[in-house]
Amino acid sequence: xxxxxxxxxxxxxxxxxxxxxxxxxxxxxxxxxxxxxxxxxxxxxxxxxxxxxxxxxxxxxxxxxxxxxxxxxxxxxxxxxxxxxxxxxxxxxxxxxxxxxxxxxxxxxxxxxxxxxxxxxxxxxxxxxxxxxxxxxxxx
Length: 140
Hints:
mainly alpha; two-stranded antiparallel sheet; 2 strands; 68% helix; 6% strand
């Protein structure tokens, strides 16, 4: 029944899009207020189109019933939200650690604009966040 409404190619792209879209909804840098929602959506769709053919052999097969499909989509969205929240907590922990370092080294009055937290932050916190983001993008 679902095979007639939802071909396998569309199913795999949609499944990947659900996870990536949910993660991009919360990832630092992408989920900020100054990033346009349509740009985020187009970025998630583009990533889904690129990644889905590579992941097609390891994706689960299309379920036979609508409740099983809804459960599968909910599970993928939950994993995406978990990954985005984990990254957001990591950046928040680095910002907090930088603030503690600034307090301990008496540099707490030297504040800069912290775009990831959308508030003022310490120089040490901004430095730690920038180094962590650089390491994430440069390491495999």
